[in-house]
Write a structure and sequence with these properties.
It is built from 8 helices and 6 strands. By secondary structure, it is of the alpha+beta class. α1 packs across α6 and α2 crosses α6. Bound molecules: flavin mononucleotide (FMN). The site of flavin mononucleotide has 13 residues, from β4.
Length: about 200
């Protein structure tokens, strides 16, 4: 499937075929594509929890006002981020760069994030937003549907997945085979309304 087709055909699908399964090859293909997503300074804040335990899926569903895609889709991912990733062995993020580049980038990264909690968290969330779209488009191109979700009690889901200190949950994504197509698009703002030239 071409990129533009995947973008146009991706919709937030809520109803899935319970009996369908995703071959390991497809899951790996989606996740290998996901981790190629861009991040500031290549920090790759994302940490994914793949929920395979059905009992845990039901507990998460309960914490998400009964959203059925949580138990019915083939896969459920909780997209988390390590807010302190900028400070966790950052040399890994530039390992393949020439040493002259490394010696410029590493102090720049530290100066950019150190002591700036809002920026650290913003960046972690930005990385998850971008990787989420990669996951959804990669899944669509393999003929799966997805549903991104923030409609859940984050504290309860954090407890269920043993979210470590210094980490945040950005969203969850259900991936599976649609049982029912999404409703027509809710109403897109026109490009004229959202795109300006040079200033607001
Ligand atoms: C960050 C985020 C959180 C969302 N949370 C939920 C959710 O909890 N439950 C749900 O059914 N849909 C959720 N959605 C889906 C949106 O309602 C949907 O993307 C939007 O209405 C546009 O529709 P489309 O994705 O089909 O184009 C979420 C989408 C995003 C991006």
């Amino acid at each position: 499937m071409k990129v533009f087709q995947a973008i146009e055909q991706r919709r937030a699908v809520k109803h899935y075929q319970v009996e369908s399964e995703m071959p390991a090859e497809d899951f790996n293909k989606i996740m290998q594509a996901a981790i190629l997503s861009p991040t500031s300074y290549n920090i790759q804040h994302w940490r994914f929890i793949r929920v395979t335990d059905q009992a845990q899926r039901y507990q998460i569903k309960e914490a998400a006002w009964g959203q059925e895609q949580i138990t019915d889709a083939c896969e459920l991912l909780v997209l988390c981020a390590d807010v302190n990733a900028w400070n966790d062995r950052p040399e890994r993020y530039v390992a393949n760069s020439p040493s002259a580049t490394q010696s410029i980038l590493l102090p720049m990264m530290k100066a950019f994030y150190e002591g700036k909690e809002q920026i650290q968290r913003d960046e972690a969330m930005r990385s998850c937003g971008i990787v989420a779209q990669t996951i959804m488009l990669a899944a669509k191109s393999l003929d799966y549907d997805t549903c991104p979700m923030v409609g859940f009690d984050t504290e309860e889901v954090a407890r269920l997945i043993h979210l470590p200190k210094g980490h945040v949950i950005a969203m969850m994504i259900a991936i599976g085979k649609a049982k029912q197509a999404a409703h027509p698009r809710g109403g897109q703002l026109s490009l004229e309304e959202v795109l300006s030239e040079n200033h607001f």
